[in-house]
Design the sequence.
């Protein structure tokens, strides 16, 4: 018995049961079988399987391709399509969802097993590569000379580098997995009102976003630090947003210089007027 869980999405019950028997004979577990796209989305969220076998044609008004698109919006789960249709339009739509395999019905157990093993192997390699990349990125971010906070796609904090820890007052272990709004609190310098956190803007729009000049960071100890902020999305090879990186800079020194310059200018004006 392996640890992998495979969910079956198939609207023909007899076919679904045959696939289930085959999977269990291969040593996989089957947490559930569903026949509609709506149920597939819900069960994927609940069971978080390692792989989904998705029939393209399903009962109801949502086919397997559309269900896969929605699942991929919320969960990073590989999908193998099962279909009796091989027309170019269907294949083109399916390719856009980056499936891990495409099996034409009717199929033999050997073909099913081979596709599953290849998909799970590719997935394992992706995870290994992702872990290596994360370790490399974390090492880089921890040693860079700017304050940086990274989050996942839900806006939960994953990394707070040393300079960001100093400015926010939160250590890495305290901030980890908390909503970024709790760690990175910003207000408008002029109004004192809370400013929309750049993370949500980046997640919603999938693009760079900045806050400048009038933004103030409120630390855990209630220290006020004027900052410039730049947020950017983290995307995978399928252009899906996996998280964000927020880079911010303490601009206190710049503010002091600007203030001194303004005071000097006003003082000069007054002297000039007095001499006249």
Sequence:
């Amino acid at each position: 018995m392996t640890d992998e869980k495979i969910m079956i999405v198939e609207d023909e019950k007899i076919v679904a049961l045959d696939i289930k028997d085959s999977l269990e004979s291969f040593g996989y577990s089957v947490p559930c079988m569903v026949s509609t796209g709506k149920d597939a989305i819900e069960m994927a969220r609940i069971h978080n399987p390692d792989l989904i076998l998705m029939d393209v044609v399903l009962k109801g008004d949502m086919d397997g391709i559309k269900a896969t698109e929605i699942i991929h919006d919320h969960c990073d789960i590989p999908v193998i399509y099962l279909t009796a249709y091989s027309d170019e339009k269907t294949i083109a739509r399916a390719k856009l969802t980056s499936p891990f395999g495409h099996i034409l019905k009717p199929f033999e157990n050997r073909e099913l097993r081979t596709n599953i093993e290849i998909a799970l192997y590719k997935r394992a390699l992706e995870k290994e590569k992702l872990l290596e990349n994360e370790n490399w990125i974390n090492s880089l971010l921890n040693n860079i000379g700017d304050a940086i906070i990274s989050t996942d796609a839900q806006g939960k904090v994953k990394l707070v580098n040393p300079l960001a820890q100093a400015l926010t007052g939160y250590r890495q272990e305290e901030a980890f997995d908390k909503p970024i709004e709790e760690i990175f609190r910003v207000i408008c310098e002029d109004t004192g009102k809370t400013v929309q956190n750049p993370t949500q803007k980046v997640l919603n729009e999938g693009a760079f976003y900045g806050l400048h000049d009038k933004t103030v960071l409120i630390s855990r100890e209630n220290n006020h630090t004027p900052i410039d902020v730049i947020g950017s999305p983290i995307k995978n090879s399928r252009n899906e947003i996996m998280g964000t990186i927020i880079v911010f800079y303490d601009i206190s020194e710049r503010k002091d210089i600007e203030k001194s310059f303004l005071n000097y200018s006003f003082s000069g004006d007054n002297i000039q007027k007095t001499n006249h």
Summary: Confidence is low (pLDDT under 50) at residues 271-276. The two ends are 95 Å apart (CA to CA). The domain at 6-123 is CATH 3.40.50.2300 (Rossmann fold).
